[in-house]
Amino acid sequence: MASLVEEVFQNGLILGNIFSWLDHHDLKTVRFVCRNWERSAGPGFSERSRIRLDMWQGLCPGRERTTFLRINKGPLLMLGTEDRVGDALAGILDSFQHFELSFTTYRHTKLVQAYRHLAELFDHLRRPRGSVTYMDAVTFEKNCNIDGLVPQGALLAVVAAQNAVPEVHMRLNLGGYPEGLHFHATSLDIDCTSLQDNVAEKATILGRFHSLKSIMFTATQGLDYYVGFMVENRDQFANLDQVWVDDCCQLKDIRILSRLGNGLRKLGINVINHPRDEFSLQDVSGLETCLVRHFATLRVLDLSFNMSIIRTWKFVTITFPKLWKLNLAMHTGPNQGHFDNLDRDIFDIGKLVKEARFRDHFPLLSRLNIELPSWPCCPMITFEQTVDLEDVFDVVVTTRYGY
């Protein structure tokens, strides 16, 4: 066995295939038991692995504002006002090529220092062969340049560096940016709680964002303005194919998503309401209109219902020809804490399985994740139907209870 392993590590082709099979995103630790293997395999891991760097600012006891830098959840590096990123890293990342970066600033931090360190980090990672392949930014504070906290030149330099990253996820306050500031972000989270005033004006700020593939709204306030702007500027948002709406209090507000020109590949909606409220059929029709519009292109559908209802509704006439993953969190019920026999199977999956018509409605579905309330209730589908889904239709089914 030892000789076989030795031959594998001496054969670059076989070794390369081993690396290609490994899931480097989930691989946390590698230990080589032989230095010969380490010399052979080390470069392979450094070329293919992605290093995660988290940079943020905070207070350090006995010091001024400090920039913190963590590498792969390891020890913290602390950078003061006069410190430089390249000196602090001291070449420890030189053998690696691919990096994922998270950058966070907070209100009342020394933003000039934070942006300078971020620019230095970009420059360091891109030399000589390195590249930042993903960035998660919680930054660009409202009015950060108008109040003189960050010089416009520094802000533009950071945005220019960020726009060179293939995939950027941003969570930010929209507002207070110069006209020349444009983001080539692939995904964006909008904090709707900060956008309730002058929503129509702030919707036009979306015009600063290009290359958007995914967008998440933390609520439905002003959703009609945002989607209306995207519809009017459909060429700019031609790549948008993923929409997520969190904390949806008015299900009827979802209807506006049916106006999006391109069919969505991924749709996620988290519906909540006050325990004393009841959704009407008119409210539900808003969701149905949205599903009818995008049924032909949806690959992933994630629906979460956290509300009080007396009876559920059905979407039995809609088929999903390309859907491969369906997540249903049905935290619904008339009386929490008491047994209920509420039918939560809104797509009649159990009936379709029983009548052997499941593949007529879900020809490509391979994952079904079900979440039910913690209080006693009827299962959404029976044990026998679950077995048929897995054995007959080759669908992986998971069911869990509670939040």
TrEMBL record:
Organism of origin: Folsomia candida (Springtail)
Highest taxon of source: Eukaryota
InterPro entries in the record: F-box-like_dom_sf, F-box_dom
Protein name in UniProt: F-box domain-containing protein
Every F-box domain range: 14-38
